[in-house]
Amino acid sequence: MTEATENNPTSFREGARALAIVMAEAIEALDGAFRRLDEGSMWKLQSDLGPLDHGLNEALKVLIEVACDERFLPIREQLISGAEVVLEALGAFTRAASRDQRSGNVLQSMRSFARGQELLYSLRSLHPRLGQLFAEPAIFDRLDSLDEHRSSKSTGIRRSGPDDDPDSRGEFHLYVPESLDGSEPRPLVVALHGGMGYGRDFLWTWLREARSRRFVLLAPTSVGPTWALMGPDADRERLMRSIEFVSEVCNIDGERIFLTGLSDGGTYGMSTYLSGATPFAALAVVAGVLHPKNIQEGAIVGAEGKRISITHGAKDWMFPVQFARAAYEALGEAGADVRYQEIADLAHAYPREENPAILEWFDPTLAITES
Fold it and tell me: Considering only the top CATH level, what class is 137-366?
């Protein structure tokens, strides 16, 4: 290898961009596979993802072997780390396993999928395909505008808890869009993960919309393996304190604080919202249920006047759709303003395509405006 080759950044840039494109393709394919999770279609999902593993490995091999100037070493190392984690996500999802092992493999894949995005987020300007992972399609023609205050210490992703343990239970992750300068009060969306989850991972289910629609996003982590659905409520106080903290450090519109949750997070969110005074203007439950403790002497307490959205899959195998239908009817009879969305092809999975509708139901001003 000649000195001229070593000092020529063109090959590295081409290799980095090629890897970025393949990684973006793999992340989008995984996102789609998680949406279509169904025991009957698992083999097809695995088959569709298989070729991406080969393409990503080949692009990664090129980047590892290409000459790289010292200036680009940090970028190369981060790209390599991101690619390795995305490969882990693909491997966990496509690994041959018994039916009993599938759930564990999918959860492992989801975690690696989120961690891959975490590693690649700071490299989003490297190539438009990476940037598009973190924005809605309506914003693709103005990606630069989303990073107007990127250098500000008050924007971007932050977390509570010890620096050496970003997965600390009872802590939270916070995202403040880089397009905000703090001059105007903005909505806050609080997103609760499902059972065995982490706010660190669930953040990515909503970050794309938060960047595009300019709202602050808070993703707490439950104190225990899941939210406090049984026994003493160890989560409520920490949840409320985290909202108070965010309201102190960010310019939050106190009339536009919204709560959403997936599965156990949705069930816990419902219990919290109905249990008394909260800062939330509305609640969106996805694949969650109405907890029995919300029903006292045959009636739902605290539902009157509350705005509640229920999104549920007709194929949900964990919480059958009959529970969601019953909750919709009971909450409506109790005086709640209920929006109900039943999705025919959805199992117990997150329908990310519903995020825009949920946000615009929360607050019509959260619709994306024309450039």
Answer: alpha beta
